[in-house]
């Protein structure tokens, strides 16, 4: 079994689609935790440090610290890869029909969700929402 992190971003929280997104993922994964929090600017900077220096970094940090987000700790076979497929392309316009970003995202920045992209990312990201849990 593998664990991964899904974040329902502030845009999706504002649009009140948390339940719809969770109902999609719980069909495929076991939910091990749910946590709503508003990231501080510093937390958002650390979370997205891999993108530091890129043109979109500051905007992403500001967006992710602009309101509450929901961390969902998921578990399942090959969970990271399967969740990335379920989430879809970063650009909702390019995401396959039926993916979360296709259904709930509007732009590359406002794309409804984040999903860990590797075991290393999951181990790094999970403690931002679940400090007491292991990846």
Structure notes:
With 135 residues, the chain is of the alpha+beta class. It has a single domain (2-129), classed as Alpha-Beta Plaits, CATH 3.30.70. It has seven helices and four strands, in the order βααβααβααβα. The protein has a four-stranded antiparallel β-sheet with strand order 2-3-1-4, sandwiched between helices. Helix 3 (41-47) packs across helix 4. The longest helix has 11 residues, at 119-129. The termini are close together. The mean pLDDT is 95.
State the main characteristics.
alpha+beta; 4 strands; Alpha-Beta Plaits; globular; 135 residues; 19% strand; four-stranded antiparallel beta sheet
At a glance:
With 135 residues, the chain is α+β, with helices and mostly antiparallel strands.
C-alpha Rg, in Å?
14 Å
CATH evolutionary superfamily: Nucleoside diphosphate kinase-like domain
Low-confidence segments, ≥5 residues, pLDDT <50? none
The CATH topology corresponds to Alpha-Beta Plaits
Give the structural class: alpha+beta
Sketch the topology as an H/E string, one letter per element: EHHEHHEHHEH
The chain-level mean pLDDT equals 95
Quote the distance from N terminus to C terminus.
Answer: 10 Å
The CATH architecture can be given as 2-Layer Sandwich
Order of strands in the sheet with most strands:
2-3-1-4
Query: Helix share of residues?
Result: 25-40%
Topology of helices and strands:
Blueprint: E1 2-8, H1 10-14, H2 18-25, E2 30-37, H3 41-47, H4 57-64, E3 69-76, H5 79-87, H6 100-104, E4 113-115, H7 119-129
Helix pairs in contact: 3-4
């Amino acid at each position: 079994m593998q664990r991964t992190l899904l974040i329902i971003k502030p845009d999706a929280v504002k649009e009140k689609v948390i339940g719809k997104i969770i109902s999609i993922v719980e069909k495929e994964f076991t939910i091990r935790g749910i946590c709503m929090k508003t990231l501080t600017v510093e937390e958002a900077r650390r979370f997205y440090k891999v993108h530091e220096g890129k043109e979109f970094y500051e905007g992403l940090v500001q967006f992710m610290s602009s309101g509450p987000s929901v961390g969902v700790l998921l578990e399942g076979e090959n969970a990271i890869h399967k969740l990335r497929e379920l989430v879809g392309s970063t650009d909702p316009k390019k995401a396959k029909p039926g993916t979360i970003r296709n259904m709930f995202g509007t732009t590359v920045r406002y794309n409804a969700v984040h999903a860990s992209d590797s075991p290393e990312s999951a181990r790094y990201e999970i403690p931002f929402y679940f400090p007491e849990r292991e990846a």
